[in-house]
Structure formats: C-alpha cells, structure tokens
Predict the 3D structure of the following.
Amino acid sequence: MLENMLKLLQDENSSCVILKENDLFYRSSFIGVKPLLQFMESVRETGIPKDLILVDKVIGKAALLLAVMLGIQEIYTPLTSLSALESAKLHGVRLHAKEIVPYIVNREKTGMCPLEQSVVHTEDPEEALRNIRAAIAVLMAQKSTS
C-alpha cells in the first residue's frame, strides 16, 4: 500500500497529494509545508472535508501538526522524522514511512529544518501553526535582506 501511495507523487508529478475517498482531491508541487498551508487556506470558507489521506514527500513534525489540524488521520511518505512519528502516535494519526530520520534537515543540509525547529516544544496544532507562520516570516525577511 505504501508503494502504491508514493507512486501517486510520481504519477501526479507532485510533492503533496490529498485524497478523499481514494480520489485525488488536491495536489501541489510546492515543497515544504506550503502545500498544506495553501490547502488549509482553500478550505477555510467551505470547511475541511472528512476522511482525507495525505501523501507527501517529507513529513516533519511541522507538517504532521498541520495535518492534525486538518483532521487527517492517515499519511504516507518516503521520509519522516522521529519527532513526527512520535507526534503522530500521540495524535492518533497512522503515519506510514519508508525511512525515519532523527530530524528533517534544512535546505543547506547544515542542521535542523527551521520549521521543524519551530514546533519542537509543542504538540498543540494551533500553537504549531502560529510558530510555523512566525518562522516563515523570519525566513522571508532574511531572504529579502540577502
């Protein structure tokens, strides 16, 4: 089942796919948590559908807590972090992964991903969302000054 779900990412040429009742409901080729944030924004008016399945290239704790906020109970990924796996157990999410790493690395491969770092000390999805948005604002500010 894991291989079939991960094949969807290739078939759809996507980094993130959300299924509802085994039908493609949402897809994105953006990286990081951007697809989940955009999906969250797109369903804000209509409400979050039930019984969604997430297939994503990388699931760190930040993405996991956003998925919890979206009511997603099942996730398939080739790569997850140990903290995401622990958080999934705590929140009753079935997380299926090919590989578990100590943490998700940043894009420069010099340390922990700043979004994963932003949620290290929380298990609350609402607090995680605030922390993620604050971390993204800092990253964007650094990008514009460099």
